[in-house]
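Format notes (please read before filing issues)

Several people have asked whether sequences and structure tokens are stored in separate files. They are not. Every record keeps both together, in the order shown below: the sequence lines, then the token lines. Line labels are part of the format and must not be stripped during preprocessing.
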Amino acid sequence: MEIGIIGLGNAGRPIAERLLKKGRHLRVYDLNRVVMAEVSELGAVKADSAASAVSDITLVILPSSVEVKSAALDDNGFLGALRPGNILVDLSGTDPGFARELEEKCAERNVDFLGATLHAAGAPAVTIPKGLLSIVIGGKEAALERCMQLLKDLGQKIICVGEPWMPKAMKIAVIMFAATSAVVCAEALSWLTAQGIDPKLFHRLLQTTGSRESAARVEEFLKRGKTYGGALSNSYKDIRQALETAATLEIPLPLMSTVNQLQEIARAQGLKRLNTPAAIGKLYEALTGIDLSRATLATERLFPEAQEPQVIHLEGQAIVPVNTRKSLAQKF
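Then the structure lines:
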């Protein structure tokens, strides 16, 4: 079976390299000809367009809906090259709405569509080669079964949900939590530091009192000097997607709006390439005038050994959303 990969960026390239080591036959395409040539030297076949990269199973691994739409619909786009019986797996940073559109376009061609997201506690260049990935994926069960061994070659947890758009929505929600956590940690630790309390003492307090979740979030912030997490630019993209989806749904996200504005300021200060906690930490130093250099831990993160792949099915169907704004307005 031939596997197509469209996108050889931060995640796409290590995925291609891992699959080649697993003995997979790949056709790869990327706008960066140098990267494509380097991957082809490892055994992949170079495609001259997104369309010619389409295979039995095609993985699309691009930054956002903008790049996926271009790769799908431009001249020699992959959408027109898909044939009945093919499977398209979108591992890109697409939003839930666009995932629904892709599913419809694939259905018109009798092509199975699977929406998926990658989850790892570290940079793709570190975690993907080790197989330290969780893959959340949604779509038809028959298509999932056809892809299962391929997915097991990539990750140690394959988490299956009902609909292709669900992984996209839940990945954005994960980022909403993480981005908010970075802001809360920066603000709380600036407040403590201003009073003369060492942030590491606060971290030990959380560990001692059994507040494990809070301690873990503070520790993540204290280790922001390490290049473990995603760049602020990635988090910014996801928060923007959350706000755009909320606008379509006509619901307010006041907290995410604040987080987005703080990220905008950080980007304006040239911090977008730093990981999110590091960028927000520097931003709060500028905003408060408080030196957060003591709010750091030098210890390295320990990466566990990869385990045998595990397939987990999370039950639960899409619910019919009920907009409660009118009833809430009546109460107020």
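For reference, the curators noted about this record: Residues 326-332 have pLDDT under 50 and may be disordered. The longest strand covers residues 112-119.
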